[in-house]
Each structure stands twice: as structure tokens, then as C-alpha cells.
Design brief:
Helix content is 39%, strand content 21%. It has helices at residues 45-55, 80-93, 108-117, 134-138, 142-153, 155-166, 173-185, 188-198, 227-236, 257-268, 296-302, 305-325, 345-365, 397-408, 418-423; strands at residues 6-9, 15-21, 26-29, 59-63, 99-104, 122-128, 214-219, 241-245, 286-293, 329-333, 338-342, 373-380, 383-386, 392-395, 414-417, 431-437, 446-451. It is an alpha/beta fold and 457 residues long. Helix 2 (80-93) crosses helix 3. It folds into two domains: 6-268, 3-Layer(aba) Sandwich (Rossmann fold); 286-451, Nucleotide cyclase, GGDEF domain (Alpha-Beta Plaits, 2-Layer Sandwich), CATH 3.30.70.1230. The chain is elongated and about 80 Å long. The strands form three sheets. It has an eight-stranded mixed sheet with strand order 1-2-4-3-5-6-7-8, with helices on both faces. A seven-stranded mixed sheet has the order 10-11-9-12-15-17-16, with helices on both faces. A two-stranded antiparallel sheet has the order 13-14.
Length: 457
Amino acid sequence: MEPRIQYARTADGLSIAFWALGEGDPFVCMPNVPWSNIQLEWQVPPLCLWFKRVAERRKVVRYDCRGAGLSDRAVADYSLDAHVLDLEAVVNHLRLDTFALFGPLHSGPVAVAYAARHPDRVSHLVLWCTYARGPDYYGASPQLQATRALLDLDWETYTETVAHVAWGWSTGEEAHDFAAFIRASVSREAVQATREAIEDYDVTNLLPEVRAPTLVLHRRQFALPGVDVARGLAARIPDARLALLEGASPAPFLGDSEAVLTAIGGFLGVELEPAPAAVDPGQAPVTILFTDMEGSTALTQRLSDARAQDILRTHNHIVRGALNAHGGSEIKHTGDGIMASFRSASRALGFAIAVQRAFAQHNESNPDTPIRVRIGLNAGEPVAEDDADGRTDLFGTAVQLAARICANAEPGQIVASDVVRGLVAGKEIMFADLGEVALRGFEDPVRLYQVRWREDE
């Protein structure tokens, strides 16, 4: 379930959106300036899982920078000191006396400035693929100069290029999704203003003043900036540790994210739990879930093929993001939805509730093209078989019943069998009894329950 979004007020009068998740010593994850959106990024599967892993041992705090995401967009000042005000607003609002600070890429200089100015508040400083001076970044590669020219010419081409080149994401749906994420997070004008401000970043003189234990993390094949910049940072910060990891992505949640979490956990003195194991479809009982999008055929006929494909991509992004976050396995795509399996009924219901709430939020912002999904769940002992490509499919009565329950649900509903309801007894999930329902292909009526997922229910 997504954390509650709150707001803090900066000294210069801006509202900064943030959320906090978990218990324990605070770990403040600074935003990925300039494209930041704490609501949409919660639907990015590997990032969502990354946050949850850290939140198992720490209180994770995440916020949107000024000019981006859910924070105030009308901004005149994008300077380093202005971004320090964003951080100050959030930690002061939460009354955090001391906290560990994670500064990625363009937030790194801001983190250094705050740590040097507030040595009594930063317990640990983690710098990720970052730099001390703006020229260390912009002078690192001709690719950055090329993307900057694209920014002035065409916004969409620029975002696609950033996703495919600068971020190192493989060509495909993930890169397109990230490009769309950028466009939804920030305006071209804000990116241009941020880039101009970054050129003036220089915290070189503050590096020797950092008193917090510091870990400088960098990936060996990442060159924007390169390893030599990371070594320079570690050399200038008193007693800083340098850890060079394999990989090329500047996103800590991509590539070998396990190595990143292990390094951070060891530095903070906590042992992070291993990533969830893949679901074993042969383990009983398995909870089977189907989703089905309302009116997808009519949607294609009403809109252009490209626009309909965008909506379908949004659907897939939301569903798969929640699926990964709740430890589910996608068995197959059904065209208008997905079939998935879960090791526990509570995880499956958590996924279903998260998906419906995500679509409800999407529909508020897109009333002309709402996405309405029906979800059905059942649990049992399906038969697992591998196809020629090694993919596992599930068969049997438990699967057939889950599909029929989904078909019987109304758009926006989550409907579960009596078996699922029994498996989550005492889990604070609210149900409404729909009575016994005759389902096609089943001789006896089946007792069904509607899951109440709206916060006002």
C-alpha cells in the first residue's frame, strides 16, 4: 500500500511533497533532481521494492524537489541553496533530530552542503554517483551536450533520449515508461532552469567540513561523472569510504541493486532482508488472481491506435508495478489484463487494493480516458506446467474459478472466493458478503465476497 503523501513548507514559501515509510532511525532519500514524482515512482517496480527493503530496517523519507512532482511547480529559484531549503523543510516538519542522508547524482552537492552546515544532524552521509562541481558533470561526456541541444529542440525526443542513453535503460517498454515518467514529473522549462543552476554548483570547499561518516558509492561503468570524480570526492571528505560497484546504471535500484543495498546496509550497521524469492507455483495453497480492463476493444475503436496503446501501457505499468511490490508472479498477459499468482492471500489482496487505488487516482486526473478494472481471486492447488520457452503456466479448477470470479465482478470491484476470505481472517481486510453466485462452468453456486478498498468504505 502506498504511503500517505504530506506537505512541508520551505522558508521561501513553497510546498514540498513527501512521504515517510517504516520505523526506526530515519533514512532521508533525496529526490532524483530534476525529474521527481513521489506518487508515480511508487509504481516503478524495482524502485518500489528498493524503498520497501530499506524501510524494513529504517524509517525511509522521500520528497519531491521544488518544481517537480507533487511539490509546487511555480518556482523561480533552482539554486543549490534553494534545494537545501527543500530538505530543511521536510526534516524540520518531521522533527528529525538526526538522520542518515542519501544524495544521488544532482542531489549530491545539496547533501554535502547540508551535512557541512549541520554536522549535528546528519548521522551518516551516502553519496551516489555524484560530484562536487557542476562542470564535473556537464564536462564528462559529449552525450550530455547532445541531449542538452535536444532539450531546446524537442521535449519528447529529449526525454526518450535520456531514458535510452543517459540512463542506460535497455530499449523497450521500460525506457518508454521512464520517458513518460519524466514528462509527467516536470516541465521542459523546469529542466532547463535546473540545468543552468547546476552549472554553478560547487561545494568543493565544503568537502573538508563534512563531519558525518560518509560512503561514496559509484558504479565502475557509469561515466556521467566517472570513477575519477568519485575518487576525488572520497579523498576530500575526511575519513570517507569509497565503494566501487559493477554496472553502468545511475539508478541504484537497477542492475545489481543487491550490491547497493548490501553496501548501504553495512555502512548503516543494519542487515537488510534478502529480496523475496520467486513464487513457487507448486506450493499450496497458491492464490490465483485475474484482472480485466473494461471496454478495451471499444477504447481502441474510439481513440487512435497510438493513444489506445498509451492507455494500455499505463495500465500495464500500474499493474506490473504493484505486482512486483507485493511479491506476485505474472503468469501471463491476457490481452485485457493479467493472470498472476501469490504465495499468500494477503499479498494478493494487498496487490488488488493497491491497483484499484492507483487507477482511481489516475482516473481523477484523466476523466476522459478512465481505466476501470475488475479483479477476481481464488486460492487452491493449481497444476503447474512449463511451456517450450520455459515459462510456467497454471491450470486446474482453482485457476478456472478465479477467472470466472473476475468475469463476474463489476469494473472497479475486487471479488474473492470464500477460500481467500478464510486465508486472511484477522488481517483487517474488510469484506462484503455477495451471497452464493452461479458461475458458468460450475455446477454448484459459489459464495463470493467483495473486498472494500476505498478509504471511505
